[in-house]
């Protein structure tokens, strides 16, 4: 669930939020993204974002070292690798860009919001699409792992 919710968040930014904001003027874009950067830092986001990583790692451990059928283990490991890739991208690219955007200051004090947007938007959007794809693929791997585990436990 947490992996799917995280994938859904990044996908919704890729196919709805950022295309919608692309149509906004520079001040509106910068102001909206600065507000989103503040509002997303909440317990629900962290529970899903960090919980997905922890729960997938625990699931991989249980399937590898817990005994029993291991047919789902490769898919869980693939999900963990994909989710870790998304996690690294977030930490290395998107979060630093968010910090730079916030460091520009309140929108009313930014002399050139077009320059601030120019430095932020294209790179952030590109890497968010990569986050959306990798987290959605991780969710797909976990879904298939669940199917395989269900088949294995139903026949034993």
Oligomeric description of these chains: single chain
Mean pLDDT: 96
SSE string: HHHHH
Q: Radius of gyration over alpha carbons?
A: 19 Å
- Helix-residue proportion: over 70%
Count of alpha/pi helices: 5
Q: Shape from CA axes?
A: elongated
Residues in β-strands, percent: under 5%
Main beta-sheet strand count, sense and barrel state: none
Helix vs. strand class? mainly alpha
Written account of the structure:
The protein has helices at 2-22, 26-39, 43-65, 73-103, 113-155. The protein has five helices and no strands. With 156 residues, it is mostly helical.
Task: Describe how the helices and strands are arranged.
Blueprint: H1 2-22, H2 26-39, H3 43-65, H4 73-103, H5 113-155
In short:
The protein has 156 residues and is mostly helical. The protein has helices at 2-22, 26-39, 43-65, 73-103, 113-155. It is 85% helix and 0% strand.
Quick tags:
5 helices, 85% helix, elongated
């Amino acid at each position: 669930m947490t992996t799917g919710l995280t994938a859904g968040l990044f996908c919704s930014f890729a196919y709805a939020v950022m295309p919608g904001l692309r149509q906004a003027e520079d001040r509106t874009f910068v102001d909206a993204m600065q507000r989103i950067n503040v509002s997303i830092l909440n317990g629900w986001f962290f529970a899903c974002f960090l919980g997905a990583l922890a729960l997938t790692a625990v699931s991989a451990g249980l399937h590898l070292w817990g005994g029993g059928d291991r047919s789902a283990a490769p898919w869980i490991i693939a999900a963990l690798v994909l989710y870790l890739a998304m996690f690294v991208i977030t930490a290395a690219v998107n979060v630093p860009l968010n910090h730079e955007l916030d460091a520009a200051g309140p929108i009313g004090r930014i002399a050139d919001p077009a320059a601030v947007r120019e430095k932020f938007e294209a790179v952030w959007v590109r890497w968010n699409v990569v986050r959306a794809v990798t987290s959605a693929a991780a969710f797909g791997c976990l879904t298939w792992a669940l199917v395989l585990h269900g088949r294995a436990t139903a026949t034993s």
